[in-house]
């Protein structure tokens, strides 16, 4: 049997007792380590997005209010389409468009 688990390392962290109690209750079956790893991965991804956003702003300037509004409108349309497809049972773990991602723009 081939294991797909990545190498792991043990670490020690210090957090408030009440926060740890809440996290343990929330983590429940998936386990504290999995919960913490997911939280760290999420925060790392946010940090990387901030770096990209900062770079884009340096390279191209800040978004205008019109550009920001247009972007949020488009995100709203994408969210609505995603919800329609999910409600219709069309999202089954495959690409939501029903084809490979490279074919989606065609």
TrEMBL record:
Domain of life: Bacteria
Location of region: Disordered: 82-106
Protein name from the UniProt record: CopG family transcriptional regulator
Native organism: Wenjunlia vitaminophila
């Amino acid at each position: 049997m081939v294991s797909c688990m990545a190498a792991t390392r043990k670490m020690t962290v210090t957090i408030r007792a009440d926060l740890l109690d809440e996290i343990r209750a929330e983590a429940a079956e998936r386990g504290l380590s999995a919960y913490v790893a997911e939280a760290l991965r999420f925060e790392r991804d946010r940090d990387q997005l901030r770096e990209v956003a900062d770079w884009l702003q340096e390279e191209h300037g800040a978004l205008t209010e019109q550009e920001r509004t247009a972007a949020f409108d488009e995100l709203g349309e994408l969210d609505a389409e995603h919800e329609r497809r999910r409600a219709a049972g069309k999202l089954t773990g495959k690409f939501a468009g029903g084809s490979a991602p490279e074919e989606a723009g065609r």
